[in-house]
């Protein structure tokens, strides 16, 4: 079997970002908010400031590290919410069928039809900027694909022997869904979630651009980029590094998701074996 | 109230480059690509329906009002009237109208003026421009429904109008407003929003909502030999970074600059000679809500003024595209005290005051702020570390601009950061701190101080402008001492223009509003402008 | 087939209804109002009487349910209401934005297709190879850039540095103006298409009929051209269609950046001004576009591939 280059690279990049976020408080040489020195704003990268300073005189490196916390939280938590909603709705709709299935299908179509950025923008307008609002806005708006996958997988699983057997054996519906169906669809759902993390990180950046992201001065890559977009000439480092961080993160999780999909895909398995 | 003399001429701090530009004789023809920088769309082509500067930038090309603002002299002057006579009691004005033609061919007459002002004041139409009509006698009765007509408006003959006002102030200050234009009474009202019909130097050619407005020279414009330009495009570009690229690329002819670009353009040999600067009459401030107990203590408010190094913020963050504020009235105001010193940056003094007031530790508040780079969240981000050094914890409450005004008017804030008009009329804007002015009018911090009230009342009944300025100066100093707000800066507006553009004016009311009829381009303009 | 189309058309109605309801609920609790947006510049204090009259004129003083009822009743008669901002019928505000929006979506899709599909094919020919990894990395890179950031970079490079293209704006008859926004908007569907194509090709390559052909000794290039291409086409067309359907709503940021007069920038401006009827109208248009395109894709899908049972 060949080295799964993409998967390994994806894992590596994701690991870097996660480590950066988790250990930000230990790694970061400066406090991302209080250690601002306007006298030294827009300084290019140096020994004191590896990634230079931003317009407020804050250390870009430290802010990128702390920004990883926000971006990762946004990515992971919003995808967790999405996956839970999507799986719960999808599995139950596929399993029970009938009016519930119709209802879930209708709702999925609605969610697919309203552009998620528009939806998130509206929710942010109601809740106001900040991390919790962001998690809700992005967590509630991107579950439709997961739901569809969960539903169609459940439909095909429902009539298979082991599920029928469990039914005959007198297990309850909830129990069957939990023990028989869920383990069999967790793979594709996980892939969707991994791929969605990148999307959530980008969505945070877009919402910051539209003025409704994280509550400043808390750093997120999105608001760092937005703040620095006019500094592109004067202090390009203030924009390049958070941009790079977003790029690495999204790339990493996408490669990871793709790699996982290849692993799970039976065609690929037989072909590669 | 009083006429404000020409003292406001001091407002016009235009650079020498503009004076040079105007030495040459204008040449006719060509196209100007202007920008409206306050958003990606305009609200309506009918300026009476909107209160936004973005719309005013377009309206200035399409319409004319009875008076106009003269940016060089800093005062209103007649526009659609060739002469005016003032009655002995100083309240009745008789205007002889100029011969002027609307874009659709209608001729201007007295009925158009009456119709336009009646429409603006009509409560059923709910037009924001109604504000400018309030000085006219009989408008309040008309709005209350007790009169069918505005008693202060009379047609003498086809070309003569008589306007009676309720006080001694020059009505030109209200009637010069671009939000109170003269429309043709015979033109269908419901067409105004899409097919405007004004008396202005340019008429509509093509409107791409959300992108641009293309205008062409109106041949029958009433001022002889104007406008100079054949075509005028106004691009709607709210995104500063995109505007920067477009300007450097020669796609647009003017660019209103933010701080970062102001610095960059000033350092760029190719750009630095074509920059127009003016001290605009806005004061940026953080207003303290007395609802928060700590802010009822003068020492706390002063302490905050001492704790922030505003010179540094103005220098580093605003790149000197602002003047550090002393008190409320801007440097250019006749009532500005040249001897007054701003609050010094003195953290020790600040700590002392906080200690005296009993807020040595534990004072924390939030600042409601929009994303604006000169008076919004970035400024709050800069004061957070400064105030934390004196033990004050500040958090941001970031909001959209519609929510900012909503929160302030409904008293739902601890502090806010905003940019407010502070001129040219000093009395009008100091009255905003008069205790009887409501919070929804403009006393946003519910300021109430007997000494200040007395001074404002005195100033209101003073007829000698010099004496009035004196009293207002004292009032302004009281305001500084009381510190109902953190005095941050007075705006410096900056516009960059291409070297071939001439005739721009240092308009201290709003630099983006230009007299298009006086703008011309020279022979060096690129082919795309010919 | 006709019954299918009819059924799908009828399904649009409840979907739209729910969308309208969601937007209505959200904007009835959103802070800030149209009236407060008039004050937002902090200079032209709007008279309190004017505000009260405006509220009355737009029926904002009526209870929520009455307003919803009024709106739905109007909608049933194809009346989208009156814009608070412009005081014109909402349709007059939306209509001029439609064509620029559609044009941008199609142009972005065109870019995505001519780059994404070949990339996907190339990657699939040698799965697991460096070429595969390389092309896929390239495609995913496209997915990994914040779009306003990518748009700004495009402006800097192609307008300012190279001077090849205008940096912003809209001209009805100009192709040059659409290129940069289309690329900025198309880069993410491009990545998606490349992936889908790759996956589709791999799937077909493993299908029995291809294995048979390969066993018969057909060369790989001929194989790709003949058997695989035709079968992948269906998949690619579906993805393409779905993407076109959702691009109109995704263009918000790009439209703002490039001063493109589309529905997306109208929507953002209307949200900022709390012009709720226009927000409703714009969302309805975006959703309708999505639903109709989806329906067309399904119909086309059924027409191309008779094995799909249409019910």
From TrEMBL, chain A:
PROSITE patterns with a match to the protein in the record: ABC_TM1 (PS50928)
Domain ABC transmembrane type-1: 68-257
CDD domains recorded: TM_PBP2
Highest taxon listed in the record's lineage: Bacteria
Compartments (UniProt record): Cell membrane
Sequence intervals crossing the membrane: 117-141, 185-214, 234-256
Keyword Transmembrane belongs to the record: yes
Family indicated by similarity: Belongs to the binding-protein-dependent transport system permease family.
The protein's name in its UniProt record: ABC transporter permease
Organism expressing this protein natively: Tianweitania aestuarii
From TrEMBL, chain B:
InterPro entries, per database record: Peptide/Ni-bd, SBP_5, SBP_5_dom
Signal peptide: 1-21
Keywords: Signal
Domain Solute-binding protein family: from-to ranges: 76-439
Transmembrane segments: none
Subcellular localization: Periplasm
Main localization of the protein described in the UniProt heading: periplasm
PANTHER family, per database record: ABC TRANSPORTER SUBSTRATE-BINDING PROTEIN, PERIPLASMIC BINDING COMPONENT OF ABC TRANSPORTER
Family: Belongs to the bacterial solute-binding protein 5 family.
UniProt protein name: ABC transporter substrate-binding protein
Organism: Tianweitania aestuarii
From TrEMBL, chain C:
Lineage: Bacteria, Pseudomonadati, Pseudomonadota, Alphaproteobacteria, Hyphomicrobiales
Record-linked PANTHER family: DIPEPTIDE TRANSPORT SYSTEM PERMEASE PROTEIN DPPB-RELATED (PTHR43163), GLUTATHIONE TRANSPORT SYSTEM PERMEASE PROTEIN GSIC (PTHR43163:SF5)
Transmembrane segments: 12-35, 104-125, 137-158, 178-195, 232-258, 278-304
InterPro entries: BPD_transp_1_N (IPR045621), MetI-like (IPR000515), MetI-like_sf (IPR035906)
Topological category with respect to the lipid bilayer: Multi-pass membrane protein
Chief location of this protein within or outside the cell: membrane
Family label: Belongs to the binding-protein-dependent transport system permease family.
Pfam name, any one: BPD_transp_1
Subcellular location(s) per record: Cell membrane
Name this polypeptide is given: Glutathione transport system permease protein GsiC
Nucleotide-binding among keywords: no
Residues annotated as domain ABC transmembrane type-1: 98-297
The keyword Transmembrane helix belongs to this UniProt entry's keyword annotation: yes
CDD domains: TM_PBP2
Role summary: Part of the ABC transporter complex GsiABCD involved in glutathione import. Probably responsible for the translocation of the substrate across the membrane.
Keyword list, A-Z: Cell membrane, Membrane, Transmembrane, Transmembrane helix, Transport
């Amino acid at each position: 079997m060949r080295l799964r280059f993409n998967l390994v690279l994806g894992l590596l990049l994701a690991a870097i970002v996660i480590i950066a976020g988790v250990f930000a408080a230990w790694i970061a040489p400066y406090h991302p908010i209080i250690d601002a020195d306007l006298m030294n704003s827009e300084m290019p990268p140096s020994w004191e400031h590896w990634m230079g300073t931003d317009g407020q005189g804050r250390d870009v490196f430290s802010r990128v590290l702390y920004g990883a916390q926000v971006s990762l939280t946004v990515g992971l938590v919003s995808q967790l919410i999405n996956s839970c909603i999507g799986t719960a709705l999808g599995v139950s709709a596929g399993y029970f069928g009938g009016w519930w299935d119709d209802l879930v299908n209708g709702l999925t179509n609605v969610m697919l039809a309203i552009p998620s950025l528009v939806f998130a923008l509206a929710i942010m307008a109601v809740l106001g900027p900040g991390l919790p609002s962001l998690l809700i806005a992005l967590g509630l708006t991107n579950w439709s694909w997961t739901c569809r996958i969960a539903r169609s997988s459940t439909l095909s699983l429902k009539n298979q022997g082991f599920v029928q057997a469990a039914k005959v054996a007198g297990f309850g519906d909830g129990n069957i869904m939990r023990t028989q169906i869920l383990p069999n669809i967790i793979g594709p759902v996980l892939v969707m979630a991994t791929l969605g993390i990148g999307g959530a990180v980008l969505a945070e950046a877009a919402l910051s651009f539209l003025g409704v992201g994280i509550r400043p001065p808390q750093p997120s890559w999105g608001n760092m980029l937005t703040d620095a977009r006019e500094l592109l000439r004067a202090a390009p480092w203030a924009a390049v590094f958070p941009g790079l961080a977003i790029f690495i993160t999204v790339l990493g999780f996408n490669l990871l998701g793709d790699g996982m999909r290849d692993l799970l895909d039976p065609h690929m398995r037989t072909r590669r074996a | 109230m009083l006429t404000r003399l020409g003292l406001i001429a001091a407002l016009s701090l235009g650079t020498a480059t503009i004076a040079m530009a105007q030495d040459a004789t204008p040449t006719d023809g060509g196209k100007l690509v202007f920008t409206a920088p306050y958003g990606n769309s305009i609200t309506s082509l009918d300026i009476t329906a909107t209160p936004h500067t973005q719309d005013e930038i377009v309206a200035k090309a399409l319409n004319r009002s009875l008076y106009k603002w003269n940016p060089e002299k800093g005062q209103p002057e007649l526009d659609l009237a060739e002469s005016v006579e003032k009655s002995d009691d100083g309240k009745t004005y008789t205007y002889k109208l100029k011969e002027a033609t609307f874009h659709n061919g209608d001729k201007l007459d007295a009925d158009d003026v009456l119709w336009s002002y009646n429409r603006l004041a009509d409560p059923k139409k709910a037009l924001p421009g109604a504000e400018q009509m309030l000085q006219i006698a009989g408008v309040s009765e008309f709005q209350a429904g007790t009169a069918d007509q505005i008693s202060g408006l009379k047609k003498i003959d086809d070309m003569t109008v008589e306007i009676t006002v309720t006080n001694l102030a020059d009505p030109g200050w209200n009637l010069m407003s671009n939000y109170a234009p003269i429309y043709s009474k015979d033109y269908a009202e419901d067409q105004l929003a899409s097919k405007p019909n004004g008396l202005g130097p340019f008429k509509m050619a093509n409107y791409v909502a959300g992108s641009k407005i293309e205008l062409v020279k109106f041949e029958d414009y009433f001022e002889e030999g104007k406008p100079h330009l054949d075509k005028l495009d106004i691009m709607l570009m709210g995104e500063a970074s995109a505007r920067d690229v477009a300007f450097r690329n020669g796609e647009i002819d003017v660019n209103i600059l933010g701080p970062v670009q102001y610095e960059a353009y000033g350092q760029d040999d190719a750009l630095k000679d074509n920059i127009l600067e003016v001290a605009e009459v806005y004061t940026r401030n953080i207003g303290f809500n007395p609802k928060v107990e700590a802010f009822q203590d003068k020492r706390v408010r002063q302490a905050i003024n001492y704790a922030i190094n505003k010179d540094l913020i103005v220098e580093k963050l605003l790149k000197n595209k602002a003047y550090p504020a002393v008190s409320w009235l801007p440097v250019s105001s006749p009532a500005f005290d040249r001897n007054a010193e701003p609050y010094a940056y003195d953290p020790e003094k600040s700590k002392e005051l906080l200690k005296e007031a009993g807020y040595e530790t534990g004072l924390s508040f939030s600042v409601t702020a929009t994303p604006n780079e000169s008076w919004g969240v970035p400024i709050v981000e800069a004061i957070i570390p400064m105030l934390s050094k004196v033990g004050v914890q500040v958090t941001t409450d970031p909001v959209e601009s519609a929510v900012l005004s909503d929160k302030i008017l409904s008293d739902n804030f601890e502090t806010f950061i905003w940019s407010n008009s502070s001129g040219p009329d000093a009395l009008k804007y100091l009255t905003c701190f008069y205790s009887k002015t409501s919070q929804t009018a403009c006393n946003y911090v519910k300021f109430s101080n007997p000494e200040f009230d007395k001074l404002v009342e005195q100033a209101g009944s003073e007829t000698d402008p010099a004496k009035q300025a004196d009293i207002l100066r004292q009032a302004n100093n009281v305001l500084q001492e009381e510190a109902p707000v953190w005095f941050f800066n007075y705006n410096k507006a900056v516009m960059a223009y291409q070297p071939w553009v001439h005739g721009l004016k240092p308009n201290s009311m709003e630099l983006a509003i230009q007299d298009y009829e006086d703008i011309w381009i020279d022979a060096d303009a690129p082919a795309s402008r010919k | 087939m006709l019954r299918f189309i009819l059924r799908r058309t009828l399904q649009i109605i409840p979907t739209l209804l729910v969308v309208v309801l969601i937007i209505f609920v959200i904007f009835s609790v959103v802070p800030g109002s149209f009236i407060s947006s008039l004050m937002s510049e902090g200079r032209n204090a709007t008279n309190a009487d004017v505000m009260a009259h405006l509220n009355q004129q737009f029926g904002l003083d009526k209870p929520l349910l009455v307003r919803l009822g009024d709106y739905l009743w109007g909608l049933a008669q194809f009346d989208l209401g009156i814009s608070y901002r412009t005081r014109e019928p909402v349709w007059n505000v939306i209509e001029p934005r439609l064509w620029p929006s559609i044009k941008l979506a199609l142009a972005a899709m065109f870019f995505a297709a001519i780059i994404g599909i070949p990339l996907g094919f190339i990657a699939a020919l040698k799965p697991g190879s460096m070429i595969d990894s390389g092309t896929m990395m390239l495609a995913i890179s496209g997915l990994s850039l914040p779009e306003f950031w990518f748009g700004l970079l495009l402006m800097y490079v192609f307008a300012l540095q190279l001077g090849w293209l205008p940096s912003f704006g809209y001209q009805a008859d100009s192709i040059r103006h659409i290129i940069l926004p289309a690329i900025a908007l198309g880069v993410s569907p491009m990545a998606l298409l490349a992936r889908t194509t790759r996956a589709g090709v791999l799937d077909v390559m493993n299908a029995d009929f291809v294995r048979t052909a390969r066993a018969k000794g057909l060369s790989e290039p001929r194989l790709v051209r003949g058997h695989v291409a035709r079968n992948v086409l269906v998949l690619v067309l579906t993805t393409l269609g779905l993407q076109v359907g959702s691009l109109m709503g995704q263009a918000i940021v790009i439209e703002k950046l490039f001063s493109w007069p589309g529905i997306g920038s109208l929507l953002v401006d209307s949200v900022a001004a709390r012009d709720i009827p226009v927000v409703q109208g714009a969302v309805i248009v975006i959703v309708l576009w999505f639903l109709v395109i989806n329906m067309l894709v399904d119909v086309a899908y059924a027409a191309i591939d008779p094995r799909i049972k249409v019910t």
